From TrEMBL, chain B:
<feature type="transmembrane region" description="Helical">
    <location>
        <begin position="48"/>
        <end position="70"/>
    </location>
</feature>
<keyword id="KW-1133">Transmembrane helix</keyword>
<keyword id="KW-0812">Transmembrane</keyword>
<feature type="coiled-coil region">
    <location>
        <begin position="120"/>
        <end position="168"/>
    </location>
</feature>
<keyword id="KW-0472">Membrane</keyword>
<protein>
    <recommendedName>
        <fullName>Anti-sigma factor</fullName>
    </recommendedName>
</protein>
<keyword id="KW-0175">Coiled coil</keyword>
Amino acid sequence: METDIRFTHRSIVEQCKAGNSSSQYELYSRYVDAMYNVGLRFLGNTEDAEDIVQDSFVEAFKNLDHFKYESSFGAWLKRIVINKSINHLKTKRISVVPMEAHEFHLADEEPVEAEAVDILKVKKGIAQLPDGYREIINLYLIEGYDHVEIGEILGISTSTSKSQYHRAKKKLLEIINEL
Amino acid sequence: MDNFERHIRHNAGQFDGHKADKDKMWAKISEGLRQEKPKVIPLWKRPLFRVAASVLLLLGIASFFGLAVFNNSADKTQYASKELMEIDMYYKDLVSYQVQLVKNNQALSEENKAEFLSFMDELDTEYEVLKKEMQKNLDNEQVLEAIVGNYKKRIELIENLLHQLNESKKPNGDDYGYTL
């Protein structure tokens, strides 16, 4: 099954590699909404999200030769969008909640267990989270990365990712409970 | 993973509710793709180019080693042919032999020797110029003739000198003080 996912749209991807612009448009059409939503989740406004997604598609098409089907094209592209979004946020702001500051007392903090919550409430809750927390919640819960991957994306250790995530999740549950 | 997390991950699609302004964004993307020619790199990925690159590389290596091996004999190979090389060798030996004769000749004054050798030096510089010309233009027969002419002039000069020296010796030994 996994192999099948990696080779999704392979023929279109190969045509794009050969420089076929109609295939590029086809591939773009299939992924643009998903990528736009990813960008929007991280950046919080349509303008930045559009810019980042555009840049990501340009970069992806230019570097398509480096794409060797180690993941699906969508996963590869999403990683470009996320990396660009996070870099954009880094240059734009000084982190409100510096991640490193929480590292020590979080290590022995108990992970919070919680029951399923209405998705609409989750959306509202995430929107109210501080930027740093929102990033890690998005990466883990919605984009579906594990802590090793999140560590790579954010340039932090796996354990920092875990502890940071648990703190963010706790905060999210607090917000949701108050809604 | 608890129920809260599982529920969100299973319904992650519900977070993708926004629609992108597809055409507007594509216009920017295709503009971005036009700015730089992205198809330069793929060319090298084609088999034909790989073959061509391999051939070039082989030629490069071959010429590099070729140069390294033959570099020692570069002074010799700069001549147009083996024939010319032999002529050059012949005259060079002859000239240096005769120059040596003049230098060792007791009958000549230091002044005469210096004058003679300065002529030789002039011809030497001329010869160096011709040799450089030869490297630039290997098939130039005029240059070839000029080189041979240069040698002949030296020999003529030496022969004249030696001849006059011998002539002057015969009647009496006092008469050899004139210049060339």
